[in-house]
Amino acid sequence: MILAISWGSLAKRLKLAVKVILLIIIIFYILPKLLSLFWQANDQELKLREQRMLEKPLRVSAQIIDNS
C-alpha cells in the first residue's frame, strides 16, 4: 500500500502543529511566569502600605509622649 502525501497538506499540518506547540508553551510556561511577576510586584506594594499604616499610629503616639 502506497500513501501519497502532498507537500502542501504536509506543510499545512506542520504549520498547525507549530501553532499548537507555541500556544501550549505560552499558556503553560510564559503566562504563569508573567502572572507570578505581577503578583510579586502587587504583594510588595501591599506590604509597603501595611508598613505605612503601622508607622502612622506609632508616630502619633511618639508625638503625644514627646509633648507630655
Q: Based on CA inertia axes, which overall geometry fits?
A: rod-shaped
Quaternary structure of the protein? single chain
Percent of residues in helices comes to over 70%
What is the string of helix and strand elements? H
Count of the separate structural domains: 1
Average the pLDDT over all residues and give the rounded result.
80
User: Using only CA atoms, what is the Rg?
Assistant: 29 Å
Structural class computed from helices and strand pairing = mainly alpha
CA(first)-CA(last) distance:
102 Å
How much of the polypeptide forms β-strand, as a percent range? under 5%
**How many DSSP E strands?**
0
Count up the helices: 1
Keywords: Membrane, Transmembrane, Transmembrane helix
Transmembrane segments: 20-39
Description:
With 68 residues, this protein is an all-alpha fold. It has one domain. It is 90% helix and 0% strand. The chain contains one helix and no strands. The protein has one helix spanning 7-67. The longest helix is centred in the middle third of the chain and has 61 residues, at 7-67. The termini are far apart. The model has no long low-confidence stretch (mean pLDDT 80).
